[in-house]
Amino acid sequence: MEDSKLPLSLRNNLLDLFGQIEREFENLYIENIELRREIDSLNERLTGDGQTIEGGDPTKGALKTKASHSTSQLSQKLKTTYKASTSKIVSSFKATTGSRALCQLLKEYVGHRDGIWDLSVTRTQPVVLGTASADHSALLWSIETGKCLLRYAGHAGSVNSIKFHPTEQMALTASGDQTAHIWRYMVQLPAPQPTPDVSAPCDDDQDSSDREEGEVDGEGPCEVPTVRVATATLKSHQGVVIAADWLVGGRQVVTASWDRAANLYEVETSELVHTLTGHDQELTHCCTHPTQRLVVTSSRDTTFRLWDFRDPSIHSVNVFQGHTDTVTSAVFTVGDNVVSGSDDRTVKVWDLKNMRSPIATIRTDSAVNRISVSANQRIIALPHDNRQVRLFDMSGVRLARLPRSNRMGHRRMVCCSAWNEENQSCNLFTCGFDRQAIGWNINIPALLQEK
Description:
By secondary structure, this protein is of the alpha+beta class.
């Protein structure tokens, strides 16, 4: 079995079932030996008394009833065991065979020289993918071709976050150099190329064997236009800026830092408007509401905080203690929900109108990194430390798992996910420590039908 191509979970399941069958046969074998001894003993006594059992056949007559009963028991046990075994095996394959059309590899985006922390999709035309990397750069990519279109090289440290302006061709990046930068970009999309059909199932029983560790195939992007100077530099933090986002309208931005504070800035003047303090430990993420002046910040102090700027004269804050370990991210949905993920291996869905307790809790087998929620279908994508990416609905029901095998998927920790929805189909993008971003086409109608 060492050279078996079966997934480990399925192989262990089969071994357990075969072990149960073996134990049943062992018990029946012992029972049969004892029965034969009794038959031999009884036959010897009858022979000594000068009697035989229906022509000397010890399996007939009075003993036939006991033998038949034993045979019936054996038959019933075998039927029960076989039925249980086959039902478990069939159920384990059912989702795999029925999920062929759920996920399709769209493109791999290879070119960074270090792990990718964050990614985002532009909200204006042309639609491109942006990635933020520990190699001190941010790259813009053609989604269809996988070609690198532009490099931003203005930071002196790891680029930890990238977000695009809601209406203009501007990007906001946060960095380990204790600053956040706003920079403009202009890109021209190349002609699209045909995409090979590499569809694969989305399920936990998919082969999850690992490719050999090492650098990603490819030599990085060839020479591309490079932006080196920011339009605005935001530099009021005293520690690593781990994340940043645009407030609704794009006239203000919020940044989150390891100095335990979040800052609110005016974009036009780069002026610091508010410093949001209260977290006891380093911040890990920040997110803004898509339609209201609300900000949520998450922290290593196991809490996330909701900041309300809707009333200019009142800046209220609410603290939520729903996790037992670092809250790695908390994001708004298009509706009135907040979804929080944590190193405690849980994801919780909250109702903004009643945040006393979560309305759904998702328990996983690995720490959860920067999550994202699709705007139209409200599907939660969970990137994990164990290289898995799982999809759930807002009620906590698991929908699918992205393929992770020798042919596709991430080879190291998955750091972030981001959605790009178009009509009935939508794309999900993921990035990780293996220095690559991956685009997936998710068949939403088929996914929801499988549920």
